[in-house]
């Protein structure tokens, strides 16, 4: 992550709700160029690996039944919706209640920022769009960063049972113990009193005004519940494909490899902030996890289809959100603004 202060934290909405003047965009930094190069290298590696196993993968792809594919797509629409509702709950708690249509417009269009190499583009995009509804940028930025932290924490918590599949038995035991120790520490950091102190401290260091109200326990619990629901939908979408390609896999193995495994692989992808949407990392780990209970060709096919389904869900929701946001002037340079109570 860059050491520069994100505009979402450094800028505020003026008293009349209009955006302050902005300066010309700075030149692309060496770190930004490195991120793009790294993303290209990983994408090339993924394509080459897929090409080398294409015979097995293509056979598995054609073996997926239409019913399993439809079920996978429908279940894949659940995680973005759950995530948006969790984000909306915290935004409401901080003083910016939004009906679902504008919340979806801001959240889903901003989510496309995760496909850009870097780690703050989603937060910045949501903050800029939210400013047109007179949501202070610092408030949007705090909600976005809390969302990332809780998504990572819940993903790691759900993914712990899948760790032994990636490691030797002795290593797995040690790593699992470390993760189980780390999770309470992360949970303590996200405990509302501690989290509110960290937010206030961060805003003070950035010389920004404090939030008008602190985060409540109820809001953090609500967001966590929605995020756990998102992981459940995602794991079920993987399990549908895995069961279709490997009918002999037991329900317990499906839960560990698909439910817990997908959450663990996704959390690992989130930690590699230089790569867009965890591309390569999530897919590779998912193949390794699924490979424990099915042929590697079938596991790769599942990872490929899941990448397509999750991308389709993000783009489909973003298209709907874009249409709404465009109609209400949340995009572009128009000075007209909509406002919701």
From TrEMBL:
Superkingdom as given in the UniProt entry: Bacteria
Tell me the keywords, alphabetical order.
Cell membrane, Membrane, Transmembrane, Transmembrane helix
> Which Pfam family is one of those matched by this entry?
LPG_synthase_TM
Q: Which residues cross the membrane?
A: 32-51, 63-87, 142-163, 175-199, 220-242, 254-275, 287-309
Query: Per UniProt, what is the membrane topology?
Result: Multi-pass membrane protein
The listed locations are: Cell membrane
Identification of the protein by name: Uncharacterized protein
What is the species of this protein?
Answer: Nostocoides jenkinsii Ben 74
């Amino acid at each position: 992550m860059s050491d520069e202060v994100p505009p979402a934290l450094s800028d505020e909405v003026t008293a009349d709700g209009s955006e302050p003047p902005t300066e010309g965009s700075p030149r692309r930094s060496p770190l930004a160029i490195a991120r793009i190069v790294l993303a290209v290298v990983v994408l090339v590696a993924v394509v080459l690996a897929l090409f080398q196993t294409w015979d097995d993968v293509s056979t598995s792809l054609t073996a997926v039944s239409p019913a399993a594919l439809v079920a996978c797509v429908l279940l894949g629409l659940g995680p973005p919706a759950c995530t948006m509702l969790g984000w909306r709950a915290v935004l409401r708690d901080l003083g910016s209640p939004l009906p679902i249509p504008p919340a979806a417009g801001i959240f889903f269009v901003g989510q496309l920022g995760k496909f850009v190499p870097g780690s703050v583009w989603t937060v910045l995009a949501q903050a800029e769009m939210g400013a047109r509804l007179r949501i202070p940028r610092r408030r949007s930025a705090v909600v976005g960063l809390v969302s990332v932290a809780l998504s990572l924490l819940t993903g790691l918590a759900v993914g712990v049972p899948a760790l032994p599949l990636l490691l030797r038995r002795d290593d797995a035991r040690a790593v699992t113990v470390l993760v189980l120790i780390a999770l309470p520490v992360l949970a303590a950091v996200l405990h509302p009193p501690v989290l509110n102190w960290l937010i206030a401290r961060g805003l003070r260091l950035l010389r920004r005004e404090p939030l008008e109200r602190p985060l409540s326990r109820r809001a953090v619990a609500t967001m966590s519940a929605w995020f756990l629901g998102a992981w459940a939908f995602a794991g079920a979408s993987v399990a549908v494909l895995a069961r279709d390609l490997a009918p002999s896999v037991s329900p317990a193995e499906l839960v560990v490899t698909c439910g817990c495994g997908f959450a663990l692989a996704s959390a690992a992808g989130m930690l590699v902030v230089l790569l867009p949407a965890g591309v390569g990392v999530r897919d590779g780990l998912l193949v390794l996890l699924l490979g424990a209970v099915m042929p590697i060709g079938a596991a790769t096919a599942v990872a490929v289809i899941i990448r397509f389904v999750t991308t389709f869900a993000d783009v489909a929701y973003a298209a709907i959100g874009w249409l709404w946001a465009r109609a209400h002037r949340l995009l572009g340079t128009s000075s007209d603004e909509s406002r919701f109570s």
